[in-house]
Amino acid sequence: MRTFILLIMAALAGMACRAQEPRPEGGGRTLTAGQHITPYRIGVPFSKTVHILFPSEVRYVDLGSTDIIAGKADGVENVVRVKAAVRDFPGETNFSVITEDGSFYSFLVSYEEEAEALNINMDRRLLPEPSAGGSASTEGSAVRVTELGEEDPSVIASLMYTIHRLDRRDVKHIGCRQFGMQALLKGIYVHKDLLFLHISLANSSHVPFDIDFVRFKVVDKKVAKRTAQQETYIEPVRALNELRRIGGKSEGRIVYAFHKVVIPDDKLIEVEIYEKDGGRHQRFHIENSDLVDARLVDELIKE
Is the pTM of this model over 0.70? Predict the structure, then answer.
């Protein structure tokens, strides 16, 4: 009986304590300190743009007021640019960013004619290591561009430079020679979902060869008479050492990067190199079997 009375008293005491807890007006619940997301404070000028680098693709940007302008940088998936839309706007405003990996970022923005930081890195994976003198390096980091998808542009640039520097001739049967010009496909390489073509141009004449354009397209291998040719153009996403002129008695090389290209056996990739204001055009073809035999770029680095 005594135990039963003690239980009743404890229950009544608990109810009394809960009754004394303050409740916000309207019957809502109070946020705890652990639920608050602390915003980052940044200053933005009117005549300059602040760029913020995020670790993954930006999916959502919301502005607190029209005092600022913010949005994704053109052609770049993980960079937001922000600047003041009104010179010397008073007080503070805010904006929020949600990225593809589910991260939420909040910023408090005030006007600063001379902003302390114009380039901000929110990717902790890319934060620079302190140098021997205690200061941190300020060199760039992995901006993601639309045409390269998830690939790091700095890595792709390094791979293309490696192909160009090594100057191997891993393909020996594709090219053309006419009008004193020679176009050769020296190598076909792959890295993940990217395809690389290493092309050389040599001019054995004394007349310079001015390049109007280089065109890549998928064509039918055999076309019956009175049948329309089916063509699909493919565009490179990167080009290293893109040439505009091959001088007399000289040569040059270009490395192109493409998204993964898959063609059936009855198709070809046709490469056309047109001379500006001239007729010494060069043309050669790449078959599916050549693409299948492409080498890994990583293998070149190890050799």
Answer: no
